[in-house]
């Protein structure tokens, strides 16, 4: 009996069991790398930095249109990138800075690579805006000093002109006084030469002829 039972083929009789299915290995998707996540952003930056104005314009308005149509986190980050990228007509760094600050105020909506990228972009645009503000301040200071110097030079020139005119008037007055003194001296000399004590004595009168 025992031998008979043991001789029952596997899968039959009392000790039978369902056939074992071989499981297929799970398909694993490799996690996206930083390069994969940032690829579109980097392509956008490269296109906006090209020397082709038509391409720059097309890319910017395509990014803007996508953001306004569906302002997802990715679209917002791409639009912020377009706004702060210099060298094209659509650049508005101040607006891009505000959008980046808004995105980073909700960091959970960004994947780590996007969060790091947004931090870098914000740091760059803040530094650039600060540099531009300082440059404008220096230019305004320089312009103010130039205007002040020009006004100072103008005042100095006016003073010099007035001083020259005053000296000319003083010289003219001195010449007039000198001419008057010369006239007086000439008049005194003329009077002195015609005074009675200096006149020549008349020749003695002829004595009457003597008789023969």
Task: Name the features.
about 210 residues; about 65% helix; rod-shaped; disordered N terminus
List the helices and strands and how they pair.
Elements lengths: L1 H5 L27 H15 L4 H17 L3 H12 L8 H12 L7 H82 L19
Helix pairs in contact: 2-4, 3-4, 4-5, 4-6, 5-6
3D structure, described in words:
This protein is mainly α. The chain has a domain at 36-135. The chain is built from six helices and no strands. The protein has helices spanning 2-6, 34-48, 53-69, 73-84, 93-104, 112-193. Helix 2 (34-48) runs parallel beside helix 4 (73-84). The protein is rod-shaped, with a radius of gyration of 55 Å. 14% of the residues are buried. The model is unreliable at 1-15 and 24-32 (pLDDT under 50).
Compose a concise summary of this entry.
The protein has helices spanning 2-6, 34-48, 53-69, 73-84, 93-104, 112-193. The protein has 212 residues and is mainly alpha-helical.
Mean pLDDT: 78
Number of E-type strands: 0
What proportion of the residues form beta strands (DSSP E)?
A: under 5%
Principal-axis shape equals rod-shaped
Low-confidence stretches: 1-15, 24-32
Q: Can you summarize the main beta sheet?
A: none
Structural class: mainly alpha
Helical segment count: 6
Radius of gyration using CA atoms only: 55 Å
Spatial gap, N to C terminus: 232 Å
Q: What are the secondary-structure elements, in order, as H or E? A: HHHHHH
């Amino acid at each position: 009996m025992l031998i008979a039972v043991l001789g029952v083929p596997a899968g039959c009789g009392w000790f039978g069991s369902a056939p074992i299915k071989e499981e297929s290995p799970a398909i694993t998707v490799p996690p996206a790398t930083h390069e994969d996540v940032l690829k579109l952003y980097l392509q956008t930056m490269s296109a906006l930095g090209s020397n082709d104005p038509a391409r720059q314009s097309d890319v910017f308005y395509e990014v803007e249109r996508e953001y306004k149509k569906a302002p997802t986190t990715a679209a917002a980050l791409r639009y912020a990138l377009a706004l702060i990228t210099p060298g094209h007509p659509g650049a508005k760094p101040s607006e891009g800075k505000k959008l980046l600050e808004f995105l980073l105020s909700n960091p959970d909506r960004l994947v780590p690579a996007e969060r790091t990228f947004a931090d870098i972009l914000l740091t760059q645009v803040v530094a650039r805006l600060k540099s531009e503000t300082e440059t404008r301040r220096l230019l305004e200071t320089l312009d103010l000093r130039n205007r002040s110097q020009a006004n100072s030079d103008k005042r100095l020139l006016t003073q010099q002109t007035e001083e020259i005119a005053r000296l000319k008037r003083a010289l003219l007055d001195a010449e007039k006084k000198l001419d008057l003194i010369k006239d007086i001296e000439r008049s005194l000399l003329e009077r002195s030469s015609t005074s009675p004590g200096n006149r020549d004595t008349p020749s003695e009168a002829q004595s009457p002829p003597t008789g023969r």
